[in-house]
């Protein structure tokens, strides 16, 4: 039985939704683990991030976004507009703001004491809709994602540049 834990460290742009295509890294982990038959679970510990499985479309806009990402961002901007002021959404409440201010005293830069940086209700809602993990089958040593399927780690938060972690669990035989 193989059980292996891996972590990818990624950096978000802090200016817009950040997509990290992680397919090749995951495939390499499957090979190096020796996993022949089993599963790979990819998960984000961050409440404003998601793991999505989507077709790689080759075409990108002038900002480097794949066309499906552009379409997805446009749709989500209409459904879940970006939070720009404290009156756009109810979140965050005063108790949460106090909590974040206390946490920033303990953790420093990873939780900056800047109220505008937690105006990210939109990112939390988007992450809730898309979920924080995906599970993939490994059969005969290969990740079963087809020829056009790609795996993306998405940071929906657009308020500040951050280091993000992506957890990968490889399990099977």
From TrEMBL:
Q: Quote any Pfam family the record assigns.
A: YjbQ
Q: Give start-end of the signal peptide.
A: none
Tell me the superkingdom of the source. Bacteria
InterPro entries according to UniProt: UPF0047_YjbQ-like, YjbQ-like_sf
Protein family membership: Belongs to the UPF0047 family.
* Name under which the protein is recorded: YjbQ family protein
Organism, scientific name? Aerococcus agrisoli
């Amino acid at each position: 039985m193989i059980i292996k834990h891996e972590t990818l460290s990624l950096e978000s742009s802090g200016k817009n939704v950040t997509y990290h295509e992680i397919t090749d890294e995951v495939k390499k982990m499957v090979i190096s683990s020796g996993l022949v038959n089993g599963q790979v679970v990819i998960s984000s510990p961050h409440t404003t991030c998601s793991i999505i499985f989507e077709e790689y479309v080759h075409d990108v806009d002038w900002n480097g976004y794949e066309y499906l990402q552009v379409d997805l961002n446009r749709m989500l901007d209409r459904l879940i507009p970006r939070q720009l002021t404290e009156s756009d959404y109810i979140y965050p409440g005063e108790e949460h703001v106090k909590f974040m201010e206390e946490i920033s005293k303990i953790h420093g830069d990873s939780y900056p004491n800047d109220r505008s940086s937690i105006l990210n209700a939109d990112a939390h809602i988007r992450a809730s809709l898309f979920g924080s993990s995906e599970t993939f089958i490994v059969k005969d040593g290969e990740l079963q994602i087809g020829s056009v399927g790609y795996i993306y780690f998405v940071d929906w938060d657009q308020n500040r540049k951050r280091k993000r972690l992506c957890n990968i669990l490889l399990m099977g035989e």
